[in-house]
Amino acid sequence: MIILLPIKPLSVNKAYQGRRFKTKEHKNFCKNVGLLLSTYNKEQFKGLLHIEYRFFMKNFKMVDIDNLIKPIQDCLVANNIIEDDRFIVGMIASKYPAKHDKIQIEIKGAI
User: Is 81:41 a contact under the CB 8 Å cutoff?
Assistant: First the structure.
């Protein structure tokens, strides 16, 4: 399944307050991702998964790619796209310069 979300990726630095508390910005991000996901057939992926993330960003040079992954994974779990992010056994993440911010996610069952 390939998901295309026309939304600015959220950095983990803006998503959490301290170590455990989600910020308002994170909650709004997940709500907006949920609205965008409502246009997709919401089959839940269970078991071991491989995910590829492609982040298209205006300011791609200013963001650490690893900081973009956790917030979007939290949203995939919260919106029942994946059962739990602990079942992700493989991942590829890329970031690209773009005129418009968006996230592309490809989810596959592992082996």
Answer: no
Q: At what angle do helices 24-37 and 66-78 cross, to 10 degrees?
A: 60
Q: What is the CATH number of the domain that holds 59?
A: 3.30.1330.70
Strand positions, DSSP E, the chain: 2-5, 16-17, 21-22, 49-57, 88-97, 102-109
Q: Please count the structural domains in the chain.
A: 1
- Assign residue 80 a region: left if phi > 0, alpha if psi is -120 to 50, beta otherwise? left
- What global pTM score does this model have? 0.88
- pLDDT above 90: percentage of residues in the chain: 69
d(CA 99, CA 36): 20
d(CA 79, CA 104): 16
